[in-house]
Amino acid sequence: MDYGTFRGLYTLLLMIIMIAIIVWAYSKRRKASFDEAANLVFADDEQPSADNKNAGAKQ
User: Fold this and answer.
1) What pTM, to 2 d.p., does this model score?
2) Total domain count for the chain?
3) CA 35 to CA 24: how far, in whole Å?
């Protein structure tokens, strides 16, 4: 096996891995978990009350 054949097989392997990742990312089974992860940014933590905000400013 010469160097050119090795490089060709390596390129083919990487292309198969890339296609597998794309199929995994766009599969319908993963959609719910990806949507949940995307909306974590908008999840509100417990908001401090107005009294707590004013108490911190007075200190």
Assistant:
1) 0.56
2) 1
3) 15
